[in-house]
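Write out the 3D structure for:
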Amino acid sequence: MTFLDRWLERLRSARDRLVADPRFQRWALNNPLTRPFARRGARAGLDLAAGFVYSQVLVACAQLKLFDLLREGPLSVDALATRLALSEPATRRLLEAAASLGLAERRGGGYGLGLLGAAFAGNRAALTIVEHQPLLYADLMDPVALLRQEKRGLLADYWPYSDGNAPQTLSAQQVTPYSAFMAATQPMVAQEALDAYDISRHRRLLDIGGGEGVFLSVAAARAPDLQLTLFDLPAVAARAKGRLEEAGLLVRADIHGGDFLNDPLPQGADVVTLIRIVHDNDDASALKLLRNVRKALAPGATLLIIEGMSGVKGAEPLDAYYGFYTLAMGRGEPRRVEEIEALLRETGFGKFRLLRNALPTLASVLVAQAV
């Protein structure tokens, strides 16, 4: 540790002691110059302590389809109580809670959409994620037990490939829930990535772990001459074939089933995508996957890693979310951009670029080339 590091650490320690002192906290609230900062800190503390309740209010709104009911305009409490099959007091309690969070707002004698509620109302994929969250919330009921891995979480059962035992043998019934969830939420990730990266410069796209082919469908619309290849577990690949056939894209698509950690990957692509895949794997599995990808690529081919990444400005809370989500899932971890680059460098990739995109809280896009 350098002299500067030691000096800065002493300053931080002094700051911590000061802020932890109840007398200083009262002084900061009473002083007109420091009061705005103290109030902001108190509000941040409230949001952390009450955040689970906020989330449950949002889940209740999503499950009751409240945003759909309010899209056409405000409704009275009585009318909403009837539509929601709740008592009038319960309906008012929900609406007041939603209004306090910007999900609804009071309008005359009734309630309409708030700005945040309107945003959710127009984004079916985001609502699908909200409706998925109770699985995670159940696993987080005892976070210390989860950290100690004293029990198997519900998310581990929801993602049946997470135990790593012969995932290619999973049945159609086993893959249907998570595959449908990924298909419902993939469009917003695809739009975000393809707004940041021009896929039309390429000849053939290989989407590894490509699910039901949603990303390929969006990419195909952006690049009419692009040839498409998808690789996923056999039961998932079968679902992709049906979706791409329905979209009229099978004529330009090749579908392959297998285990991307152990089976050879299709060759011939000049761009490969890994979408919400790398952070689902620990370092050993991620290295194995990336080596397998590199074997399938010619030098100069492009790899796009598209997922939430730690340390990206504006997306800092993803460490908390993905850290505990992947823990409950039973595998994987969030990584900083430089940590992903280190894995890529070890497996034969270089020339990294982190693209600027509009919504890094949803996903970031890291570009690498096979070297």
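The radius of gyration is 24 Å.
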